[in-house]
Structure formats: structure tokens, C-alpha cells
């Protein structure tokens, strides 16, 4: 920290502080700051270009000095701080900088994977041949669970394939109130109005506390889709119904039957599908006023009483939305590929 005179009358000693360490150097009485710089370069391997000296009163000094003849004798017993890096430290630092700046090559180059081809004809067909509006009954418990059930049917791989094959476009898929279609003789599981304008499915158990087996309901949906073509339960109808059931099973690559969310399902029980064939006419009542129909495209429409014109108009709007979305995706993919 300090500099002090030695016993020899013609020498002085200066103590420098460098990186927290003290270094003592001896000089002649007439030594200058230039002599100090040379000793630091030779003894400490700090080249002049890297040297900086913080001196009392004189402040910061570095080579080339403004006054190279500045004497060292007045600095005896003064605090002198040396700042600067040795040649070895500079070499190590430069090497580290070079390594960090060098471009890195991956240790292993992964093989390029081909871009997945998207069947845009299939995308456009799925936008057209589908259930355009999904409708749970809002006055029954947990309508959100029923909506998820309807969405699952809409997204079922087997159902989607069958609807594309037969070009089925259904304006409204909704759930049935079990209390309205149960007698001592039979239990109605599905209804089809006006060749597929509206399809109702009995999703819930009779006590409303759970949901029926998924595959049984899906089989009922196959039955109701067949009524899009044939009204009465004749030979033509049953042949088409069995054909649709086989197609749905064949194309159901996800195997179906798994629960969704926390929906409770009844045990799988084979039930005979009761319905009234393809029936026509009348108004379709959807609960009380002020409620909404949940659109499969994310929107809502008012409920109450939907006439044939209302149902078809809503379906046309959803169909156009889906078609525009499919067209926009197709164009966007073409621009980026």
C-alpha cells in the first residue's frame, strides 16, 4: 500500500497494489515514471499499452505519459494503484473470446423429415359434410358435458369418414330429453327430422345422472344417418344402416369408447334402437326462451322454436364459415410451401 525509503541512501522503494496484492519495487533516487513503466513491463509482464497508474494528486497516468520525466521520489510513502493485465492473461482472454465467437457445429445432424402432406380435398369435405350446429339441452343438468359428448361424436374419425363418403350434411345435432320419449313399451334412442335437418340422440341415462355407453349412442347415430336417405324401416334402410355401421367401425382408428373429461358413462349394454323412422313436419322446440344454441364453429344462435327455415339458415351460415376457413388454410399452405 505504501512506499518507503530503504537503508541505501541512493535507492527508494515503491509498493504498488495490483489486483489486491502488494508488489514492492526498488528504484534509484532520480527514477521517473518512465522507469516505473519499464520495470512493470519487465518484472510483471504487463506491457505499457495495458498499464494504468493511479497516483495521489497526479491522478490516472498511462503510457505514453504527458510528462515522462515525472519523478518517483515524491511518491515514497504514497498509495499507488497499478491496473492492467499481464500478457498471459490477455492471451487467455482472447482465446476464450475466439472460442465463444466461433460458429458452433451440431454434434449430430438430424435427417430432414419430409413435410407432412395435407389432403385439402378432405379438409374441405369435412367442412361441408358434418354436423354444423351442436345443441345440448340447457335446462338439463351439466349441459357442458352433453356438449363435449356431441363434440366427440362430431370429431369421431369413423363418423367423419362415413359422412364424407355419403355426403351427409346435418344442420343440427342435439340431445334428447329422456322424459319426453319413454313409454312402458319402448325407449326412443334417436330421432331424425326431414332427412337429416335435425338429429336427436338420447345421451343421458333415464335418471339424468350419467351418460349412456358411447358406442351404443354412436350406433344410434349411424341408424339416424341412414334415415337421411331412407325414411321407413325397409330393406333399403337396413342395408344402408349396416353399411354405415361397418364403415364407422372400420375407419375408427382411435377405437372410440374412451371417457371424455369427468363424464360418467353407463355400462355398455346392447340396446335395440327405437325410433319413428324419418319423420317430417312441425316445429322443433329447443327449451325455453332466452337460451342459446351452441355452434360447432364457436358461435351461438337463439333457441326457442326453430323452424325448418331457421335450422337450414343456421346450417348454411356454419357451412360457409367452415368452407371459408378451409379455403384460407389451403391458400396459406400453398403460399408457404
Automatic annotation (TrEMBL):
Residues 317-337 are annotated as: Disordered. GO terms for molecular function: proteasome binding. Gene3D superfamilies: Phosphatidylinositol 3-kinase Catalytic Subunit, Chain A, domain 1. Pfam families: WLM (PF08325). Residues 122-321 form the WLM domain. Coiled coil: none annotated. This is WLM-domain-containing protein. It comes from the Eukaryota.
Amino acid at each position: 500500500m505504501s512506499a518507503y525509503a530503504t537503508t541505501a541512501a541512493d535507492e527508494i522503494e515503491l509498493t504498488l497494489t495490483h489486483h489486491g496484492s502488494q508488489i514492492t519495487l526498488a528504484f534509484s533516487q532520480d527514477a521517473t515514471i518512465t522507469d516505473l513503466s519499464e520495470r512493470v513491463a519487465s518484472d510483471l509482464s504487463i506491457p505499457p499499452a495495458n498499464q494504468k497508474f493511479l497516483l495521489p494528486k497526479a491522478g490516472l497516468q498511462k503510457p505514453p505519459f504527458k510528462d515522462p520525466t515525472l519523478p518517483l521520489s515524491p511518491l515514497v510513502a504514497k498509495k499507488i494503484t497499478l491496473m492492467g493485465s499481464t500478457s498471459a492473461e490477455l492471451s487467455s482472454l482472447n482465446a476464450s473470446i475466439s472460442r465463444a465467437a466461433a460458429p458452433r457445429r451440431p454434434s449430430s445432424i438430424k435427417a430432414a423429415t419430409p413435410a407432412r402432406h395435407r389432403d385439402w380435398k378432405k379438409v374441405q369435405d369435412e367442412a361441408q359434410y358434418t354436423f354444423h350446429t351442436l345443441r345440448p339441452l340447457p335446462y338439463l343438468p351439466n349441459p357442458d358435458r352433453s356438449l363435449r359428448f356431441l363434440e366427440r361424436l362430431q370429431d369421431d374419425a369413423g363418423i367423419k369418414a362415413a359422412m364424407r363418403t355419403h355426403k351427409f350434411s346435418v344442420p343440427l345435432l342435439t340431445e334428447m330429453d329422456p322424459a319426453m320419449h319413454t313409454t312402458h313399451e319402448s325407449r326412443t334412442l334417436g330421432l331424425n327430422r326431414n332427412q337429416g335437418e335435425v338429429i336427436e340422440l338420447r345421451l343421458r341415462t333415464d335418471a339424468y345422472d350419467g351418460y349412456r355407453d358411447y358406442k351404443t349412442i354412436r350406433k344410434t347415430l349411424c341408424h339416424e344417418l341412414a334415415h337421411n336417405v331412407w325414411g321407413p324401416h325397409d330393406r333399403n334402410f337396413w342395408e344402408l344402416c349396416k353399411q354405415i355401421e361397418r364403415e364407422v367401425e372400420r375407419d375408427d382408428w382411435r377405437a372410440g369408447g374412451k371417457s371424455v373429461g369427468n363424464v360418467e358413462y353407463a355400462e355398455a349394454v346392447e340396446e335395440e334402437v327405437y325410433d319413428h323412422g324419418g319423420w317430417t313436419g312441425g316445429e322443433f322446440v329447443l327449451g325455453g326462451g332466452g337460451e342459446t344454441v351452441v355452434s360447432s364453429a364457436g358461435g351461438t344462435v337463439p333457441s326457442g322454436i326453430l323452424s325448418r327455415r331457421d335450422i337450414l339458415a343456421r346450417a348454411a351460415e356454419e357451412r360457409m364459415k367452415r368452407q371459408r376457413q378451409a379455403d384460407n388454410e389451403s391458400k396459406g399452405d400453398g403460399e408457404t410451401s
